[in-house]
Write a structure and sequence with these properties.
Elements: E1 2-11, E2 31-40, E3 43-49, E4 58-69, E5 71-76, H1 85-92, H2 97-102, H3 107-115, H4 119-135, E6 138-144, H5 151-167, E7 173-180, H6 191-208, E8 214-219, H7 226-238, E9 242-247, H8 255-261, E10 266-269, H9 275-282, E11 287-290, H10 292-298, H11 305-310, E12 315-317, H12 331-342, H13 346-353, H14 355-360, E13 378-381, H15 390-393, E14 400-405, E15 408-409
Parallel strand pairs: 1-4, 5-6, 6-7, 7-8, 8-9, 9-10, 10-11, 11-12
Antiparallel strand pairs: 1-2, 2-3, 4-13, 13-14, 14-15
Helix pairs in contact: 4-5, 5-6, 6-7, 8-9, 12-13
Length: 412
């Protein structure tokens, strides 16, 4: 048993959280001043204000530093074979995301490289990235497949994710099948055959091997249509895989509406939002997951977070860590972009990156807040951090002093 004492402010303290935060709730970040935190066997046992009286426990003096729950990154693609910096240069030379994809780059490029990579090598590189984001404060993560685009390669990716789950039991890991990420070159003129491959072969195998929690589709101009998305999601739901959707990143794709119609846990990206999308989300329990570092890297418009919050739609923030459009899992930078570019307040951004992110990957009973019984995964901030607003403000500063996952310190 460990007793963390001398905490200047213990943030995101909530007795219980039964639903994601909406509207004005997102601007509230409860805390205890002059606090302590009691941890046993990796779980939060108790907390309160100083002085703390507990006998026979290991004392950890945090020397007046602030504490926040670990980030919950509910949208990543960290299982991939190679980086794609050559496409970064192509964009600098004026090529669009769609033009690069049409020329065999983008997702198809990653798929080619992944098929040539062994499962062991794929695991090693994914594990490095997982260790990296853990050191940056991420305490729970969702990981998608989608760079295989054939049955064997998609299953290979999902087995890597399953191994990460097994080897890192101190953090919740959720797995998402994203076989419908792009149309492979071999199926360019046989779209329906590929849809049938996903529905009739890939999904049943994924379900039978218990390799995924969710089924996702890239519903976007030049990728998968609303009708194709609907068919794939419904096939996944029949096999026990809940829906998620990549929606409205490049255009008004209809992805939000088809996601809501299939009770999607979240619809992600949402750079394009109109009245129809807002109305669909308002009438649902679907979470709007925003990925501002993608907009930053691709130099496209940012999602309208203020409109979503004003309309009482729950908003989560995630990194979208992937080799093509967001080669970074740095959640502190996501906080800064959310505030600077999407005009979220520091409190809203932190709530979106912790408790609402936990709801977006259905682990809010385990992480996302300082709550009795939850996993003791939290960040200790450096002593010189003067306020919570400093976190997004100091976008180039490493303000994390230490990361604890399941009550144990990580290498930072």
């Amino acid at each position: 048993m460990k007793l963390f004492t001398n905490i200047s402010r213990l943030y995101q303290v909530r007795e219980s959280v039964h639903k994601p935060l909406r509207g004005s709730e997102m601007g509230e970040l409860p805390f205890l001043a002059d606090a302590w935190l009691l941890v046993d066997e990796g779980k939060i046992v108790d907390y309160g204000t100083n002085p703390a009286v507990h006998n026979g426990v290991e004392m950890v003096d945090l020397e007046g530093k602030m504490v926040l729950p670990a980030f919950v990154d509910s949208h990543t693609h960290i299982v991939y074979a190679k980086s794609r910096e050559e496409e970064f240069v192509m964009r600098l030379q004026g090529k669009s995301y769609e033009e690069i994809a049409e020329s065999g780059g983008g997702i198809l490029n990653s798929a080619t490289k992944l098929r040539e990579t062994s499962e062991e090598a794929l695991y090693e590189s994914a594990e490095r990235r997982l260790k990296e984001v853990r050191s940056l404060g991420t305490g729970a993560i969702e990981i998608k497949s989608g760079y295989g685009l054939d049955t064997e390669s998609e299953l290979k990716m999902l087995r890597v994710i399953k191994k990460l789950k097994s080897n890192y039991p101190d953090m919740p890991v959720r797995s998402t099948f994203l076989g419908a990420h792009a149309i492979p070159t071999d199926y360019k003129y046989r779209r329906e055959d590929f849809i049938q491959l996903i529905i009739e072969e890939m999904l049943p195998l994924v379900a039978s091997e218990n390799l995924a929690d969710y089924c996702d589709v890239f519903c976007e101009r030049g990728f998968f249509t609303v009708d194709e998305t609907d068919r794939i999601l419904k096939a996944g739901i029949k096999l026990g895989l809940k829906a998620k959707v990549h929606a409205n990143e490049l255009d008004y794709s209809g992805g939000v509406q088809v996601g809501v119609a299939n009770n999607a846990v979240s619809v992600d990206h949402l750079e394009f939002l109109g009245k129809e999308e807002i109305n669909a989300l308002k009438s649902s329990n679907t979470i709007a997951t925003l990925l501002p570092s993608t907009a930053f890297f691709l130099d496209i418009d940012y999602a309208n977070a203020r409109n979503l919050i004003r309309e009482n739609i729950p908003v989560a923030l995630a990194s979208d860590y992937n080799p093509g459009s967001t080669p970074s899992g740095r959640m502190p930078f996501v906080l800064s972009l959310a505030c600077i570019k999407m005009k979220m307040t520091p409190e809203e951004a932190i709530n979106a990156a912790t408790i609402n992110g936990a709801f977006a990957m259905e682990v809010a009973d385990k992480v996302g807040s300082i709550t009795k019984g939850k996993i003791a995964s939290f960040m200790v901030l450096k002593k010189e951090v003067p306020s919570i607003a400093f976190l997004p403000y100091a976008f180039g500063t490493d303000w994390i002093d230490q990361v604890y996952l399941f009550g144990e310190p990580q290498i930072h």
